[in-house]
Known about the structure:
By secondary structure, the protein is an alpha+beta fold. It contains four helices and six strands. It has one domain (6-150): Thiol Ester Dehydrase, Chain A.
Amino acid sequence: MAGKPWEDWTVGETLHHSLHRTVTETDNLMTCLLTHNPQPLHLDAEYAAASAFGQIVVNGVYTFGLMVGVSVGDTTVGVLVANLGYDAVVHPKPVFVGDTLRVETTVLEKRESKSRPEAGLVVFEHRAINQRGELVCQCKRTALLQKKSAL
């Protein structure tokens, strides 16, 4: 089990996840197909070339999903009861095919669950950063985690 139970998290703690990922054209295309997103900025090279970005912009749902997914192995695997919400999702810079993303996570809050004595809530801030050091996605994730007594 790689995730940590509720008691083992500390507010202010930051993780630098070791998994990095280079985004491919297939990643972007599959995300658009699976989510039924026909946005030409993500799919049409000619259209995207004429845009302010000058090239295809990777679907933000992929970037968000990758960011959260990369964090899971170090945060919630084996201890998650439920993800309760994602807040303040932003995409300050675009992601392009060929960008390599890394993810950092900081614990913002931690509190006991009022309804589940065997669990507690942790609010994580996830940040995806490209190879140029630019923040490309950020969110807060509230996770309900098992306590040691429940494992």
